[in-house]
Amino acid sequence: MSTVSPRVANRPTQYYYDSATDRIDVVVDVSPAERDDLTVLVGDDRLELTIDGPDGPDERAFRTPSADWAFGDDHDAIYNNGVLTISVETEPDADDAEIID
Length: 101
Description:
- By secondary structure, this protein is mainly beta.
- The chain has one domain (about 15-90): Sandwich (Immunoglobulin-like), CATH 2.60.40.
- It contains no helices and eight strands.
- The chain is elongated and about 40 Å long.
- This is Molecular chaperone (Small heat shock protein).
- InterPro entries: HSP20-like_chaperone (IPR008978).
């Protein structure tokens, strides 16, 4: 699930969960932005992308694939020729973990 500001509504975006690796991958066409124009923040259950442009910042936010999952500590972002690829591990949310005696 994602939220999109009106200025970036037409940016081609792929968001997918790879169950084999338990990772979320987000691929966004950020052209004509350069690497220095991009900010990626990863929280417990939200990934935020900000693209600084001449008309102000464009923002996009993505959530974990399920409410009982959280983003992990292993994440990276790669910018290549106007395309930003973000990969973030997912894991069961510790707050929602079942306690077994």
